[in-house]
Amino acid sequence: MPRNNSRLKMSEYSKTNGHISVCSANYLRISKLLNASEKRSLTLRNKIKETIYSAQIDTQKLSNHTWICHLVFSNLNHKLLNSLQFVLNIYHDVELCEVASFNGHAPNKYPFSHENFPKSADEKLQQNRFLTEVLDMILTSGFYEK
Question: How far is CA 135 from CA 40, 143, 145, in A?
């Protein structure tokens, strides 16, 4: 009896489609931040309930269509884990923004057996969705340019 691979293919299609949707939405969010300042480097700050937050955004143009962006989001009042560091690949031609690494750890690489730290199967999607949350916080909670 032959196996039905259509279900597996549809599942992969749905995951890929969801990932592209998240990266496309993140592109719109990061574009709002970068277009508002028209600078290669941007420092933002906000105080929410006695907690001071900072966001440092630095971009590097690799080509007309591809940029690298370093985003450091910090809670300046917290001593233990006070900063989240994202390295983003921004693709202007297809309007996508994807997390290349988060706190120095890239999403799963092939082959998975050679990873030093085990990761979940959807690590890449989790990192990009977490970026969505950080960008939403910056855009909607009154961050101002320092």
Answer: 17, 11, 15
| Domain that residue 15 falls in | 6-145
Q: Is the pLDDT of residue 1 over 60?
A: no
| Residue 34 covered by a domain | yes
Tally of domains in the chain: 1
- Give the CA angle between residues 27, 53, 34 to the nearest 5°: 30
2 CB-near residues (< 8 Å, 6+ apart)? none
pLDDT at 123: 82
- Residue 112 backbone phi and psi in degrees, to 5: -65, -25
Angle, helix 123-140 to helix 6-37, in steps of 10 degrees: 30
Return the closest-CA partner of residue 131 out of 30, 7, 37, 8: 30
Of 23, 21, 34, 67, nearest in space to 138 by CA: 34
Domain-embedded: residue 1: no
